Amino acid sequence: MLQVGFSFIAVGLLGYYFGPVKAGIANVLADIISHTIMATGGSFFLGFTLTALVSGVIYGYMLYNHKVTILRTFITVLLITVIVNTGLNTLWIHMMSNVPYITLLVPRLAKEAFSLVYQTGLLFIVLRWIDNSKFNRIDR
């Protein structure tokens, strides 16, 4: 089943406003807090915390102090999709479940292709709106 999430918008905004270091740290803290306070019964795995760090750094590096364009937004989401979602997260699931990497990867590719499209569109709309509003001056 395909789950559509929106946490990428929050991480994208962290990167846009605060840059790679602060966005990476904030995303790591959010990951740890969510597993501590709002535990869903799954076990904590440090690999996913590393994924949170990498995601925050990518969003921050690509979006902080840069003009919001559809191309920049697409490249940002593409990097997240390839490096984080398809690469690292699949690796962590493989390590936790012992299911062969390629067996996990194939079904994830279609989901990630869909995610690339909707995440690019939504993130661009949100960032463009913020870029053109009074909210674009936080910590700048």
From TrEMBL:
InterPro entries: ECF_S_folate_fam
Membrane-spanning parts: 39-62, 74-93, 113-130
Presence of keyword Cell membrane: no
Keyword field: Membrane, Transmembrane, Transmembrane helix
Domain of life: Bacteria
UniProt keyword Electron transport, yes or no: no
Gene3D superfamilies according to UniProt: 1.10.1760.20
NCBIfam families the UniProt entry points to: ECF_S_folT_fam
Name of this chain's protein: Integral membrane protein
Upper taxonomic lineage: Bacteria, Bacillati, Bacillota, Bacilli, Lactobacillales
